[in-house]
Write a structure and sequence with these properties.
The structure holds 2 protein chains of 2 kinds.
Chain A lengths: L2 E10 L2 E11 L4 E5 L6 H8 L7 E6 L2 E2 L5 H7 E4 L11 H7 L13 H13 L15 H15 L3 E5 L7 H16 L4 E5 L3 H7 L2 E6 L2 E6 L1 H4 L2 H8 L3 E5 L6 E5 L1
Parallel strand pairs in A: 3-8, 3-9, 6-7, 7-8
Antiparallel strand pairs in A: 1-2, 1-4, 4-5, 9-10, 11-12
Chain B lengths: L1 H18 L7 H10 L5 H31 L12 H14 L4 H20 E2 L3 E2 L1 H25 L2 H12 L7 H20 L1 H7 L3 H6 L4 H23 L5 H12 L6 H21 L8 H22 L4
Antiparallel strand pairs in B: 1-2
Classes of the chains: A alpha/beta, B mainly alpha.
Bound molecules: adenosine-5'-triphosphate and magnesium ion.
Chain lengths: 256, 318
Amino acid sequence: MSVSIENLKVSLGGRSILKGLSLDLPGGEVSGLIGPNGCGKTTLLRSIAGLLPLQGGSISWRHRQVAQMKAGERARQIAILPQSAQAPEGMKVADLVARGRSPHLRPFRPMSRADRDAVQRALADVGLEHLGDRPVAALSGGQRQRAWIAMVLAQDTPLVLLDEPTTFLDLPHQVDILRLARRLSTEHGKTVVMVLHDLNFAARFCDRIAALKEGQLVAEGAPETVLTQQTIGQMFGMTCRILSDPRHNTPFVLPD
Amino acid sequence: MRAAVLFVAFLVLTGLSLAAGRNWLTPIALWQGLAAGPAEDFLIWGLRLPRVICALTVGAGLGLSGAVFQSLLRNPLASPDVIGITQGAAFGAVASLLAGGAAMAGAWGGGLLAMCMIFGLSLTRQQGIEPRRMVLYGIATGITASAGLNILITRAGDAAAGQAMAWLAGSLNGRGWPDAAIAFALFLPIGVGLTAASRVLDRIELGDDLARALGTRLALWRPLLILAAAFLAAGMVAVAGPLAFVAFAAGPIARGLGRGGPNLPGAAFAGAMLVLLADLAARVLAPSALLPAGLYTAVLGAPWLIWVVTRRISHGQL
Ligand SMILES: Nc1ncnc2c1ncn2[C@@H]1O[C@H](COP(=O)(O)OP(=O)(O)OP(=O)(O)O)[C@@H](O)[C@H]1O
Ligand SMILES: [Mg+2]
């Protein structure tokens, strides 16, 4: 188990948000976090990234406590795409993506050839290679989202955490990004954990799914075991029918 | 190419500053005076050169400090003259002047005291320094210091109040080698240190989460950089008084010149040019009135800033 979370307790602003959550996410796979607004998905992702103090429990990545990793080392292991990131004013797309290389740079040295290549590759991966010179502010919402994803890709870490990577994207670009997430796992052996709201995309693109409600785990496992009428009712208080996607054999949720 | 243009601008302005004054020097006379050395030419070596060096250093220090605050607090309005450090320094200087002490020590003390106050107020146990809190507490601190300053001035006698007002406008009149030396001794180490930390600022600008995810030890760097920038600003104000607008305008101007993102050398350069130009204006435009340079920094800086902002809006960068 690569990401191992045990009895995790996290509070924000004096309120207990995650209340003793245990979850194991296998390495090299794509895991999806689903659950209603405010249930603690972002909080869980930020905790895995080592950005929040833990009230109790532990999180480890490849058998090392995330809380105990040095800042620079952690930045070469774990990358996170926050839910709402804002680019500094006037910054160009390529410069933003280049920030992702900073954990790999040596102090006082400029970017190397390899760093610049990584930036170009990340831009190409999200289809923004022709917009590198544009200011981020002059992009559409979807292009901007892809620029941020490119920054995370440029960081080139074995663990990649994506908080709602498909918001703002049109349908083809949503599929592109989710395919890219799959490629990160199948071709590059990376571990990907992403928050998704679209249950059908989660079913199709994730190897496993963790369903959350009010800071607790409702169900966890392969999509067909998690996406049942019962779990969805428990999570969202909503009735639905579950079909089977005839082409991919994944569950397809049809709300009533 | 751009660097060359800026360098020529620097040389021309510096030369002009050395030549200008009640006695205008021809380029040849200027060159001969510089070549003659301090023992021979008191006008250049004893009066104008230290003043020019003072202007350049104070301007660079203010510009740098402003740019650092702006990117640390992710707010183009956050400069030492907006978040209360300059006001604290002004209060300290005038209090010290009225008590018969030196303005310089008072300014520095007041600036640092204001900094400590803002720092203490905006420090939270969970998140460390929180930028938005810091801007708000800073503005409040600045207003408090200004109110205190007004009380001091209204209660002082006419002569003392006049002296205080003269200092408050910010000026390089009568600044000599000791002032230049103090300014430079402060600017050099802090300036080099801050510029070396540019990459940290780069990341902090992306937001707390990303800065930390990219490996920045925020709890260490943010207070350290804030303190260094405040120390620098207070020191520069102590030497030349609160030159309005320099710290505020230098950052955006430098961003306009650079590629976006903090451009610390650019901000230092912009600040230095602003103050040099303002001092030149003070000496040339109305030499007998001896209007303070601080008046001209505002008059020059504001249109410059408007021009930069307008240009960037028209380029779709804002
Ligand atoms: N800084 C904070 N201080 C106090 N409470 C917070 C803070 N951030 C989030 N919360 C609360 O924590 C809970 C979980 O928030 P979180 O952002 O993890 O939800 P989420 O599952 O990601 O929701 P969404 O789907 O809307 O993104 C929410 O009830 C939210 O109000
Ligand atoms: Mg969220």
